[in-house]
Amino acid sequence: MSIKLQRRASIGGIRGLAAGASEMTLDDYYHTVAKTILCNQNPLTGLFAAGKDTDHAWVRDNVYAIMAVWGLSLSYKKHLDQMENWTKCYELEQSVVKTMRGLLICMMKQVKKVEKFKTTLSRDDALHAKYSSVTGNTAVGDNEWGHLQLDATSLYLLMLGEMTSSGLHIVYTLDEVDFVQNLIFYIEQSYMIPDYGIWERGDKTNHGYPELNSSSVGMAKAALEALNELDLFGSNGGPRSIIHVSADYIYWCHSVLKAMLPRESFSKETDASLLSIISYPAFSIEDLDLVTETKTGIITKLQGRYGLSRFLRDGHKTPLENASRLHYDPHELKRFEKIECEWPLFFCYLILDGLFHENDEQVSNYCGLLEECIIKNPEGVQIIPELYAVTPDR
Q1: Once rounded to an integer, what is the mean pLDDT over residues 204-222?
Q2: Which residues contact 91 (CB under 8 A, 6 or more apart)?
Q3: Cα 280 from chain centroid?
Q4: Torsion of CA 227, 231, 133, 75, to 10 degrees
Q5: What sequence ranges are listed for the domain GH15-like (predicted)?
């Protein structure tokens, strides 16, 4: 199956899902998005803070949050027969542009680090993984966090390409085009750069040792493909605003990724984050047998009643974790076996995967499992918890 076909959602699957749920109109989704996402968007920077008690805004979290808004705007685009829909579509699109430009400006403030990283490939010269949602400046120091997270930068570039292709105008000037081209140079060697990965702590023992991660390599490959020969000015552009990617780097990312899967890294046999590269949003692997093998391994080893564990022997937020220190001793990992926290978010990934692959049984199965995890916030909006943890007395 080609990448283009994989990116096209199954209409039949979506209809089947809708038939089993209560009827919701676009306006219902609009109000849900407004109450859960857009109400948290900073009016100055366009960024989303991680919570009410902090101004830290993670690049990865912001991109995923605004993807929901972008998806709804695309739905409104298909129903522009009413003036009210035009208005809401425009409002949603501009909210997307605001966040994507906010992140772009945050990264452009670190242009010297990007230039230096291209030469050194050092973690000390990496773009920051999070910024202040209030000022757009750095939130913590260079050595106070595992900033080298190539999957986060790659996810941003992937969605920049997808959103630009859909008609959004996110990049305004040639200076910004040049910076995006520099970001391509920043991620193009992801196939050989150990990073801290999606969970930000490197290897499984959390000692802060970066390692080569399949999820980072796969996201970089998808970003390189999405931006290759793309005109960032859309229909108003020309040769100067086109992004160029060397085919060699796409091939090397592809080769390394195929060799690594179904493993996530040297220390992690598998990882739920691989769902994001074998399916939505990256679709980095064309080999369906390898996709199936990887997905089967994830489900078999990580799935529980309330979601998927991030990876085996993950001590994060378990009752036995010592929260006073960031790392574990190697012998401690055994203590976390079979008490890993379960994240219902990954049921959503598997629902989307079922839709894209027209697997109605998978969609129905995970919709049922997700239904058990849904709770309502004080405003009556259905949400899912971040995670489920075992009780301390287990």
Answers
A1: 92
A2: none
A3: 9
A4: -90
A5: 25-392
